[in-house]
Amino acid sequence: MCDLVLLLLAAGQSRRMRGEDKLLQEVEAMPLLRRQALAALDTGVPVLVALPPGGSELAARRRAALDGLEITEVAVADADKGMGHSLAAAARAAPEGAGLIVLNADMPGIGATELQALITARGTAPERIWRGADSAGRAGHPVLFPARLRPELAGLTGDRGAKALIAREGAILVPLPGDAATLDLDTPEDWAAFRARGTG
After folding, report:
1. Where are the alpha helices (DSSP H) in 6-134?
2. At what angle do helices 32-41 and 112-122 cross, to 10 degrees?
3. Is the pLDDT at 122 greater than 60, yes or no?
4. Rounded mean pLDDT of 140-152?
5. pTM to 2 decimal places
6. Which of 101, 114, 83 is nearest to 6 (CA)?
């Protein structure tokens, strides 16, 4: 059994995009969601993708973007209630005894290299939380949780995700290049600025 699983969180409603879906914006000639799923798969770790509940147009479009990839989909029935619900649903679907790498799907600076940096660092203290940080030292994503915290992750609710858990446990920061660990793109303005940098 693999002792790690990667949880790609992609169940949010993308409301701040004013009618567009941030996870279907193109980066390197493919939808961001597919690009991030491929990066996750490149680590060799099993990948679970938290998605909106089936039946919605949003869910159908995101599932289409993942077509053909060897991922496990996790439908989050209460995804509209906040990130904590998405994280909890994905954690419940993860195999027992596995550490959990959590990555928000709207972070184009994170690729297989950045994910692997956390996986490698974890070997020195597998019972601690590991977290990516940008070049200024600000904590961000991805976050790697040890298997012992899976039950607490599976019980999360609300929109604060695992912030309280991380605050209690502390996290060891792993420096990642530039703003990779803290760059997320939530609005059309964010996307315009990102593309103006020549990175989209």
Report:
1. 32-41, 57-65, 83-93, 112-122
2. 40
3. yes
4. 96
5. 0.93
6. 101
